[in-house]
Design a protein that fits this description.
Helix content is 30%, strand content 26%. The chain is an alpha/beta fold. The radius of gyration is 19 Å and the shape is globular.
């Protein structure tokens, strides 16, 4: 089968389309013929030689998510050949076939194309897990999303609005904020403005945000501590802006606020399955109904995976980029 491999770390030019052995499903596993692979910032970091795949996953094939059709079952595996599914993997997603546990796949929402479905798993499952399974975002609360024009940002915005939350989003470009308003963003704040914290406090009548979803990390942590509400919850899902920052513990203690950091990639299998099951019951119906929708900003053939990486590195995207295999 064809796959995009990384022989040596480096820039987008090191991505190589090559022939590799097709994986076979083991006990409890399914093999999926991939239609589309999502492109994520984690892939860029892995390509540079950082953030390696967890043990047991392909070390030289990047890619964390896919959409496709089950074409083989391992012994005792759940699922059916021909079933359309999406999922998150620890690695190996940039390939014509992936193997994962049969209980860890999610059905493609009814009426959604396989290509569009490729833009769902990583962003919607990450946002759903962070906001609802961990932060327990509730009706009427205010959510602040940093990088609201990103893949996870656009998913979080839609999920929060569907749940009746008020959403404030930040972005470095006014154009992305304007597009986010079409998805239900109530207030957009330019992240490059040194007064962004004052703007958030103004929009919340000085109260601050009940929940903060930080997809950037370092540069925003100090400001987050200023704008988090009393008993507020902050969850860090990305660190593209840096992984180190100072925390004012007294300020957090005074507000009785909390900070959580999370990833899906390295979690134990049973935890991943629990997220997949909750997502299937609570989010897939809304995707099928059109209440939520994946935002696809570009589709690339495997031969142009490097171009997809260059575009994502330039932050010239709104929503998701995909690699299409069929």
């Amino acid at each position: 089968m064809r796959a995009i491999v990384i022989r040596l770390p480096g820039g987008p030019e090191v991505l190589e389309l090559a022939e590799v052995p097709r994986p076979e499903p083991g006990k409890g596993e399914v093999r999926v013929r991939v239609a589309a692979s999502g492109v994520n910032r984690a892939d860029l970091i892995q390509r540079r030689g950082h953030y390696p795949a967890p043990p047991g996953w392909p070390a030289d094939i990047p890619g964390l998510e896919f959409s496709g059709t089950i074409d083989a079952l391992g012994e005792g595996a759940e699922g059916k050949v021909g079933q359309r599914v999406i999922g998150i993997v620890g690695g190996g997603g940039y390939a014509e076939a992936v193997v994962l546990h049969g209980r860890d796949v999610v059905p493609v929402p009814e009426g959604m194309s396989l290509v569009d479905a490729g833009a769902v798993p990583e962003v919607f499952m990450t946002a759903f897990d962070a906001l609802f399974l961990q932060m327990e975002l509730a009706l009427g609360e205010t959510l602040l999303v940093h990088a609201v024009g990103s893949g996870v940002g656009t998913a979080a915005l839609q999920l929060a609005r569907a749940a009746g939350a008020r959403v404030i989003g930040t972005s470095r470009t006014a154009a992305k904020l304007e597009r986010a308003r079409e998805l239900g963003l109530e207030h957009g704040v330019l992240a490059g403005d040194v007064y962004w914290t004052e703007r958030v406090l103004e929009l919340t009548a000085g109260r601050g945000a009940d929940v903060i979803l930080d997809l950037v990390g370092g540069p925003y942590l100090a400001g987050n501590q200023k704008v988090i509400a009393s008993r507020g919850r902050m969850i860090v899902v990305g660190a593209t802006g840096g992984s180190k920052a100072e925390i004012d513990l007294r300020a957090l203690m005074a507000k009785r606020a909390s900070i959580t950091a999370t990833v899906l990639r390295a979690r134990p299998l049973e935890e991943k399955i629990a997220v997949a099951r909750a997502f299937t019951s609570r989010v897939v119906p809304a995707l099928a109904a059109g209440t939520l929708r994946p935002i696809v900003d570009g589709i690339y053939p495997p031969e142009q995976a490097g171009d997809a990486h260059r575009r994502l590195e330039a932050s010239d995207t709104f929503g998701k980029l995909l690699i299409r295999w069929e």
